[in-house]
Write a structure and sequence with these properties.
mainly alpha; 46% helix; globular; Puta_zinc/iron-chelating_dom; Putative zinc-or iron-chelating domain-containing protein
Length: 225
């Protein structure tokens, strides 16, 4: 488990080194993308849950209070999506409405209350223009590629784990037996709210981006040792 968490932290740190190179409109208090539709792996959830348990346990009360509200429930993972695309299969649509409301970890001032341990979906949601203006995040193609590859790598690192909505993953990991099952890689989906992770069979890297992605992957491997 420690090795998997170390790999996750390395992925986060490598991603952070790339963000400052971009000219972004994101700023403190910008929270248009902070909806209740964030999905993540159990590995990211464990990092987030452990931080909450130590630094801000009251946040779990907020998660429980919001747990009856609608939110995106994933039906496939990023590696599952890749496998579907490689097979030429149709990708099922996942209902996701930003109008369902804000993330339960968002404060009334529009600040993430678990920013240090936020999952990759939040870290990777960057934009070159204000989201509230255009209604969506504006990313260049290389940023999209890097984000997709790192999401694939995170899932691959947690390939015996699960993917689910932030609310559902945190409530799942609140149970000590589930945390233990995740640690020994025996955790199975307890309901349709979760989907099993998969190893990465192939990385989604367009030819023009292979050099950048290749160097990034080498950096991750070097830091892993």
């Amino acid at each position: 488990m420690d090795a998997r968490l170390k790999t996750l932290d390395i992925i986060y740190s490598v991603h952070e080194t790339q963000v400052p190179e971009k000219k972004l409109a994101c700023a403190k208090g910008c929270a248009t993308c902070c909806t209740r539709n964030v999905t993540l792996t159990t590995l990211e959830g464990r990092r987030l849950f452990d931080w909450i348990a130590t630094e801000a346990p009251h946040l779990m009360d907020l998660v429980r209070q919001e747990s009856q509200k609608p939110r995106q429930i994933p039906t496939y993972t990023i590696n599952g999506l890749t496998d579907l695309c490689m097979a030429g299969d149709e990708v099922p649509e996942e209902p996701s409405d930003p109008g369902w409301g804000a993330c339960p970890l968002l404060s009334g001032e529009g600040l993430c209350q678990a920013y240090e341990a936020r999952p990759f979906a939040c870290r990777s949601m960057v934009s070159q223009s204000r989201c509230e203006t255009g209604g969506f995040a504006e990313m260049d193609e290389i940023t999209l590629t890097v984000n997709n590859v790192l999401m694939q790598y995170i899932e691959h690192t947690d390939d015996k784990g699960l993917t689910g909505n932030l609310t559902d993953i945190l409530l799942l990991l609140e149970n000590e037996d589930n945390r233990t099952a995740h640690e020994v890689e025996t955790l199975t989906p307890p309901s349709d709210a979760f989907v099993a992770n998969r190893p990465a069979q192939v990385l989604m890297v367009p030819p023009p981006h292979r050099d950048v992605v290749g160097k990034m992957m080498q950096e991750i491997q070097a830091k892993k040792g």
